[in-house]
């Protein structure tokens, strides 16, 4: 029974790596294309699995800090190659203008809603 343990461990490692290669994102795999890693792990179970862990498995990226352009809680903003503001002053100016425009739109909506409510009120004569 003990002599089957190494084969079982290699099989489990191979299965884990195979699933890991299949489920990893194409743009995050290192050194080779995902298809090549899949073939390497598939045809060379032990060596391919070790190579996948050492040279191919995606590195877990830490979320960017506020100064680096990341929005915490929004992983779609943390992807590589995403445009991030280079000048914090321009970024703050842009956000200020967006807030002002949103506030103007909110005020116009409120005024329009009040006007519609007044138009719907019945005229009361005494």
The number of distinct β-strands equals 0
Structural class: mainly alpha
As a percent range, the share of strand residues is under 5%
**Outline:** elongated
> pLDDT below 50 for ≥5 consecutive residues: which ranges?
none
Radius of gyration: 29 Å
Q: What attributes characterize this protein structure?
A:
single chain, mainly alpha, 4 helices, 59% helix
Task: Describe what this molecule looks like in 3D.
The protein starts with a helix and ends in a 6-residue tail after the last helix. It is mainly α. It has helices spanning 5-23, 34-43, 45-56, 88-120. It folds into two domains: 2-59, no CATH class; 67-121, no CATH class. The chain is elongated and about 100 Å long. The protein is 59% helix and 0% strand. The chain has four helices and no strands.
What are the SSEs and their pairings?
Elements: H1 5-23, H2 34-43, H3 45-56, H4 88-120
In short, what is this structure?
The protein is mainly alpha-helical and 126 residues long.
């Amino acid at each position: 029974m003990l002599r089957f343990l190494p084969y079982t461990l290699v099989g489990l490692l191979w299965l884990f790596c195979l699933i890991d290669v299949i489920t990893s994102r194409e743009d995050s795999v290192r050194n080779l294309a995902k298809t090549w890693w899949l073939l390497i792990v598939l045809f060379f179970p032990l060596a391919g699995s070790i190579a996948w862990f050492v040279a191919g498995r995606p590195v877990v990226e830490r979320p960017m800090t506020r100064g680096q352009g990341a929005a915490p809680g929004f992983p779609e903003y943390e992807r590589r190659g995403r445009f991030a503001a280079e000048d914090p002053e321009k970024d703050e100016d842009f956000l200020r203008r967006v807030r002002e425009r949103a506030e103007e739109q909110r005020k116009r909506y409120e005024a329009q809603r009040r006007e519609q409510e007044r138009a719907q009120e019945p005229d009361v004569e005494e």
